[in-house]
């Protein structure tokens, strides 16, 4: 599988990152098999979070077995020092490892959160301290929120090394600053900040719960995904063609094999097809940013 430099981190990540939330829906034996399948396809970048149910615990056994082959991203939704420091240690303990390669401020949504995170006694102090102690190697940020807020965070966090944000034809076709994640991508490329794309496989928001109960949704995603091999291949190729360093796989384990296949066979996408996909999606509901944040 193709690899790309993850900004200036020194990491060469596969163009597909394994979204390890998928493991939460599986028993341990199934989780082990899925990790083996992902590794068999050459994927070397995994992403997990303490809010993803038991995903950290389910990832642990195979992560420890293949630790040298996996660049691991983890996250925290804590905004203050004490909570973030506890979460770092908790994740290390649940994963059963000594160091997390990339530790990300998770799901930034509001300016006030950024103020808290970056203030004295904020989460960033705990993350930097953990880096000094060798518990983490790199500092990142994830957001489904306003691109302007992400750009502000880049301004205010001078040691930020990666950003994870949504990018797909639906978002690319929307007008307005609140959808301008391309500006984030350009800024990251200019500053050597690694880029990870999420929601690449989002088709749209789920129907209202009075039409389709949450329990009846066929996939364990926050949004309704594309779910055919052709659709997944197009969405992967589109995301990779935007210049993202790596694209995160969707959260439902039923989709992972198709995504692995698409990433393994990817031959890029020309600009004409990219524009056509954007036009096709232009009138779809964007699953960002109204969609449930996680």
TrEMBL record:
Residue intervals of the NADP-dependent oxidoreductase domain: 16-207
Span of the signal peptide: none
Alphabetical list of InterPro entries matching this protein: AKR2_Oxidoreductase, NAD(P)_OxRdtase_dom_sf, NADP_OxRdtase_dom
A Pfam match: Aldo_ket_red
SUPFAM superfamilies cross-referenced by the UniProt entry: NAD(P)-linked oxidoreductase
Name of the protein in question: Aldo/keto reductase family oxidoreductase
Organism (species): Haloarcula amylolytica JCM 13557
Origin organism lineage: Archaea, Methanobacteriati, Methanobacteriota, Stenosarchaea group, Halobacteria
